[in-house]
């Protein structure tokens, strides 16, 4: 048993304070840790990895089965062992989130908006509401009844969403740019009407309050227990993802001054870089595939947050 440490104590307090739900935490773990290592894992090793998160074997099995029913995960049976991986739709949802969660910084804004008009007569009301909900998860805000907008939408994700819903021929998508005559107060009012930035700012401040003590503990540069590093890394991404996926990632030109989301992104990046290498060692020692040990992480893993520590790849493979 590892000795108590400041980071271990903070991880335990963080776990108690956030109390993540099993299903959501497993999705985070698959996206953050399993997918870069080949994408498939033995259920028994997953249960062992999640035990320090306070998840019993029964709770993990129940959550995994529900994720299979919801088409997040798919099972493969080999002998008496069950192996799980993202479904194709689950992988698409992960890839969409990956681009947002692990970005190094916000891209420069072109000044153009994507507008989605859902007011055509042929669009069934129930489909319209489902589309609105999915577009909201992609960061679109409601600019007017049946008109949603985003200043920096991912065009490929938007097109895939419309195709998945069979709505490509029932929805009008346009690109537009604010005219020079649009005054700054009017633009700010539009943004505040479309997105609840006050609520989002509170969520980011809560994230900062929970994880600043972690950053202070890491600044001591004491050797990190790999199991604790993995626990903190998963909780870090889980909590950051929960806030970020409600964030439209507006350009700085459209944000209020001293926007806490920018500081939260920087904090998450620095913490992840510090935790990545020891957490990888614990993953490699704990999780199993049908072939045995996890394969090495894919190259995109080491490009997260603008690039992880140079020694992360070599040390994780030792």
CATH architecture of the largest domain: Orthogonal Bundle
Strand order of the largest sheet: 5-6-4-7
Mean pLDDT: 89
Rg is: 21 Å
* Beta-strand residue fraction: 5-15%
- What is the β-strand count? 9
CATH superfamily of the largest domain: Winged helix-like DNA-binding domain superfamily/Winged helix DNA-binding domain
Number of helices: 13
- Name of the top-level CATH class of the largest domain: Mainly Alpha
Main β-sheet, in a few words? Answer: 4 strands, antiparallel
Structural class: alpha+beta
Distance linking N and C termini: 22 Å
Q: What is the count of structural domains? A: 2
Q: Which bin fits the share of residues in helices?
A: 40-55%
Low-confidence spans: pLDDT under 50, at least 5 residues? none
Report the principal-axis shape: globular
**CATH topology assignment of the largest domain:** Arc Repressor Mutant, subunit A
Helix-strand sequence: HHEHHEEHEHEEHEHHHHEEHH
């Amino acid at each position: 048993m590892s000795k108590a440490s400041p980071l271990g104590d903070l991880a335990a307090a963080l776990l108690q304070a956030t109390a993540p739900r099993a299903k959501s935490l497993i999705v985070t773990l698959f996206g953050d840790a399993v997918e870069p290592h080949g994408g498939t894992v033995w259920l028994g090793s997953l249960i062992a990895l999640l035990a320090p998160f306070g998840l019993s074997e029964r709770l993990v099995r129940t959550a995994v089965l529900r994720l299979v029913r919801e088409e997040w995960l798919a099972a493969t049976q080999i002998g008496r062992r069950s192996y799980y991986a993202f479904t194709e739709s689950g992988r698409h949802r992960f890839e969409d989130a990956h681009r947002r969660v692990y970005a190094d910084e916000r891209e420069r804004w072109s000044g153009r908006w994507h507008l989605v008009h859902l007011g055509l007569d042929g669009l069934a009301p129930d489909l319209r509401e489902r589309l609105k909900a999915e577009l909201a998860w992609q960061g679109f805000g409601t600019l007017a009844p049946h008109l949603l907008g985003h200043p920096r939408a991912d065009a490929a994700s938007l097109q895939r969403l419309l195709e998945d819903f069979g709505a490509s021929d029932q929805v009008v998508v346009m690109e537009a740019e604010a005219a020079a005559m649009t005054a700054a107060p009017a633009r700010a009012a539009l943004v505040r009407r479309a997105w609840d930035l006050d609520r989002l700012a509170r969520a980011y401040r809560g994230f900062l309050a929970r994880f600043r003590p972690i950053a202070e503990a890491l600044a001591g540069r004491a050797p990190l227990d790999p199991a604790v590093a993995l626990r903190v890394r998963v909780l870090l991404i889980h909590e950051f993802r929960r806030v970020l996926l409600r964030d439209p990632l507006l350009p700085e030109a459209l944000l209020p001054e001293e926007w806490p989301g920018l500081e939260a992104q920087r904090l998450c990046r620095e913490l992840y870089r510090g935790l990545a290498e020891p957490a990888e060692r614990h993953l490699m020692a704990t999780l199993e595939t049908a072939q045995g040990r996890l394969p090495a992480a894919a190259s995109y893993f080491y490009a997260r947050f603008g690039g992880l520590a140079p020694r992360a790849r070599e040390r994780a493979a030792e």
